[in-house]
Amino acid sequence: MTDGAGTGPGAVRAQGVLRLGAHAFPPGRPVIMGIVNRTPDSFFRPGLTWDESAAMERVQAVIAEGADIVDIGGVPAAPGAQVDAAEEIRRTAGFIAAVRAAHPEVVISVDTWRHETGRAACEAGADLLNDSWGGHDPRLAEVAAEFGAGLVCAHVGRQQPRTRPFRVWYPDVMADVLAQTLRLADAAVRAGVDPASIVIDPAHDFGKNTWHSLEVTRRLAEMTATGWPVLVSLSNKDFVGETLDVPLEERLPGTLAATAVSAWHGARIFRVHQVRESRQVVDMVAAIRGDRPPARAVRGLA
Amino acid sequence: MLVAAASCPAPPLLDRPLTGTDPVLPQLRQACLAAVAALVASEPAVIAVVGVAGQRLIWDPALRLDRGAFAPALAGRAGSGDGLPVPLGLAGLLLDQAAYGGRRQLQSVTQDDSAAECAALGARIAAQHERVALLVMADGSARRTLKAPGYLDERSAPFDAQIETAIRAGDLAALLQLDASLARELLASGRPAWQVLAGAAHGLRADCEIGYCDDPFGVWYLVASVRCSALS
After folding, report:
1. Fewer CB near the terminus (10 Å): N or C of chain B?
2. Among residues B220, B167, B163, B216, which one has the least CA distance to residue B26?
3. How far from A147 is each of A20, A119, A141, B40, B226, CA to CA, in Å?
4. Nearest-angstrom CA–CA distance, B89 and B68
5. From the CA of A168, how many Å to the nearest CA of chain B?
């Protein structure tokens, strides 16, 4: 995050370079995070990469399709069978080490709320701690600082990890998103995390009904105006399914529409299942915004 | 007297940023730059640039191509409408790239100018100094293929061949025979500029070298370098 014009309400702060692992991503360069679950029971294509060799093939595939980051998770977001820290580490740390060995350059993210898992992941070579339960364990930021890793600061309202929203309401959902994510980002800075490696995430569906997720998508520019890089995780989520009344396997068009709108508002990291399609959407929007030239322009210019 | 001349095409894609990430035709840009470098090396007192525009005018050499008119995102704004006509603007870029710091004279001619008017203008340009170099920005037919901007017109190949033959042979006077109405139908916008070259080189020996001759997008692009000397 760089210093912008001011800090008062409504002030727009400029986006700065985002540092993750060995990479420095400039503003205007969309970053794709490909999801690789080490779980038997995640909501989208459950068990697809439960097997380690399938997971490694998936890593290779998402990198080949244009992912800059692989996000490795060992615990599903939804409630279900208990996964304690030891089991979560068993599912993720060894695999992260294998990915690091096979792909020295790729940014590795671990999807966890526990500092024990974060530590094991960083020791295995992770560059980013994707704390999708919004600072439930404050020591996670300390681990990020200790290892020079990045940190995702997500909004979950008052949800506990692995719980579903039940009659949640906000006087102003975006105000709550901004307050919580900025508070977490400030806490991360105070804990010693590199400000250039801190990311904020409205966390669609987490602690939100579908109306709330649509609202934060519509008003995402209020997050990008803070100057912090914004991550959005939209992929095949329930707010897409409920909005279009479509089952899981038919959520790609809605996901890509929300992706395009978020990219237009200046989101920088996109956590996705379908990497190739998402890459094309964010690159197209980057060109429409004027952040990226066309790959090859000849029409009308010969 | 004319000491040297160069002929370059004037597609906007000559301006490198306009094609996006892919350089598309690096060899064309390289050939143009080499031809312009040869002009600079001829040590002229002035480099006169001739290109076709809507009006016959002398332009301020401090002006540049209005890139925003083609790619607002690259210029950070829409076109201003007060830049140079495209052929003169591209010539300006080439002279900048060749690090030419000497005097520039930018002259536009129009599709309505006759061969005689163009030749007379060329003679005046050549007579103004002892050492004049001329850069003509001229395109052949834009109707050479089915995918061409102007679709296919079978008359394109012989029309462009007439120009190529004249220049390869150093017989620049033959360019005065180009049919203006056919050129217009073929979208061959370079006809008046080439006829200015013919007038400027009148009575001189012309040794010509072709640096590029192709139609990758159905428009005929020619890059030529001309060295002029008194007839012996």
Report:
1. C
2. B216
3. 12, 8, 10, 58, 66
4. 12
5. 43
For B158, the token pair is 């012989």
pLDDT of residue B41: 98
Average pLDDT over residues B6-22: 96
pLDDT tens digit string along B24-69? Answer: 999 999 999 999 999 999 999 999 999 999 999 999 999 999 988 8
Closest chain B residue to A300 measured between Cα atoms?
A: B149
In B, which residues are within 8 Å of A29 by CB distance? Answer: none
pLDDT digits (tens, 9 = 90+) for A63-86: 999 999 999 999 999 998 899 999
Radius of gyration of chain A (CA): 18
Contact between B18 and B74 (Cβ < 8 Å): yes
pLDDT band for position A3 (50/70/90)?
very low
Bridge partners for A43 per DSSP = none
Q: Which residue of B has its CA nearest to A293?
A: B20
pTM: predicted TM-score of the whole model, two decimal places: 0.87
Of A290, A293, A302, the CB nearest to B13: A302
The partner residue sitting opposite A297, judged by closest CB among B19, B72, B216, is B19
Chain A segment 277-296 residues within 8 A of B by beta carbon are: 290, 293-296
Q: What is the nearest CA distance from A65 to chain B, expressed in angstroms?
A: 19
Q: How close A265 comes to chain B (CA, Å)?
A: 17
CA distance B117 to B105: 18
Is A156 in a helix, a strand, or coil?
coil
Nearest neighbour of B11 by CB, restricted to A294, A296, A301? A301
Active-site residue list of A: 237, 271
Tens digit of each residue's pLDDT (9 = 90 or more) over A185-209: 999 999 999 999 999 999 999 999 9
